[in-house]
Amino acid sequence: MVPAMPPAMRLGIDLGGTKIEIMALDPQGAAVLRQRVPTPRGDYAATLESVAALVLGAERAIGTHGTVGVGIPGALSAATGKIKNANSTWLNGKPLQRDLEKLLDREVRLANDANCFALSEAVDGAGSGSRVVFGVILGTGVGAGIVVDGRVLTGPNAIAGEWGHNPLPLPAGSDLPLPRCYCGRAGCIETYLSGPGMSADHQRVAGVVKTPIDIVSGAGGGDPDCCATVDRFEGRLARALAGVINLLDPDVIVLGGGISNIQSLYAAVPKRWGAQVFSDRVDTKLTRNRHGDSSGVRGAAWLWGPSPSSDAGNAASTSNRR
Q: Can you give the pTM of this predicted structure?
């Protein structure tokens, strides 16, 4: 295997359920190449080949080898070295890291895609300059990553930041009955604060099927049912993030995913979370991401650290490779 090299060119891979994307970052963090291909859903061997082809093709295009970081929709089991908890289910139980390292003949660093999002925003995004960054993805699902002093926190169980599968705090009458979650539990934060969760809540209360975009648009136009749905969503998000602040006390919470485009959240939620935060004031900032849908792939590249001397990526790699 080729030994790890100082990061002259960082290659990041975002291994998603519908597309696989690669981005090459130069030493200053500027993107010099970006490409995406459809994910061969359900086919593990073809997924490996697609990732390898993107890496080797990128290196031919830029004329140099690079380090490789991969963001995945799951986690690497410390017990088995295989993928777990991936909603791209054909990855579960597979030694993805080892197989990619064999194909590419070099060390490959893996991290959960939410961790990659948080790392990207902490390095040179909306959380740049902050010691503790909590990066939240509100999209088809709900996830989060934690970065402290430039290091991704993974944890011994590889689940640090799995905030979406905690129960929604202080469920009130409007939160009942507790919705069932795909994970087998009921009342998970994800069932309320994901895009499908918002749509399901609106349908339960208003009896009408609407997408989150339609709900937000309706609220902007004064539709009372849509206004009520957005109000419930803001209250739930405030309660859920208050728990994060009490436990982690981050400098900044960065929102990503489709729901992060709801502009009203950034003023409304901080006004409401103080009711549950155990402090006389709350200085944590709530902000939208800077890099949009590039955050995941950029964060995968940053697993090798924002500079040749940085060990931010080493922390993520080591904890995943126990």
A: 0.89
